[in-house]
Amino acid sequence: MSSWTPSRHSRASSAKTATWPPHGADRNSVTATLFALLSAGVACSSADDPIVPPPFSLTGQWTRINSSFGELDGMVVQVNGPESQAVITATPANIYIFQSGDLKWRNIVKVSDDEYEYEALVRQAIAGTQSHIPGLITVNDGVSISLSFPTTGTFQDWIVVE
């Protein structure tokens, strides 16, 4: 055990001798405790540090919850990758004859952190024709998206299922 003698500039009397580590502790336990405390201090973040959410991804299942065509609310699509396509996996009975397996969104392209351009499959009930129209996907909060269609003025709101 080594001993430490205070210098003549310290407050302690030169007649007293202090030892390290303090009485009752061994050097290894003190070193381990100091290391743990320093590590914890480094790992803590301050209130000023921003919380950075993970990057948004369209990948997953999405459920249509509100739209210009309410009879299609409840439709579920599966997106298998970013800048991919969406396939219908479930849909309520409807006059547009959408069904599981239909390609609902295609040519999805990210244009900014919170917007994607794409083409949506649309069907006309009376004429029975179908086409793809351009649309815009806007990320709202990481768990919901809004779809808008400039050519028709219609909208859709979707939430992530998984």
Topology:
Blueprint: E1 3-4, E2 18-19, H1 27-43, E3 60-67, E4 76-79, E5 86-90, E6 103-112, E7 115-123, E8 130-139, E9 144-149, E10 154-160
Description:
The longest helix has 17 residues, at 27-43. The radius of gyration is 32 Å and the shape is elongated. It is built from one helix and ten strands. It has one helix spanning 27-43, and strands spanning 3-4, 18-19, 60-67, 76-79, 86-90, 103-112, 115-123, 130-139, 144-149, 154-160. It has 162 residues and is mostly beta strands. The strands form two sheets. Strands 3-4-5-6-7-8-9-10 form an eight-stranded antiparallel barrel.
Give keywords.
162 residues; mainly beta; two-stranded antiparallel ribbon; 1 helix; 39% strand
Find the structural class using helix and strand composition.
Answer: mainly beta
Query: How helix-rich are the residues, as a percent range?
Result: 10-25%
* Major beta sheet, strand line-up: 3-4-5-6-7-8-9-10
Number of strands: 10
| Distance between the ends | 61 Å
Strand content: 35-45%
Order of helices and strands: EEHEEEEEEEE
Q: Tally the helices.
A: 1
Task: Please state the average pLDDT score.
Answer: 80
- Runs in which pLDDT lies below 50 for 5 or more consecutive residues are 6-15
Overall outline: elongated
Major sheet size, sense and barrel closure: 8 strands, antiparallel, barrel
Radius of gyration computed on alpha carbons: 32 Å
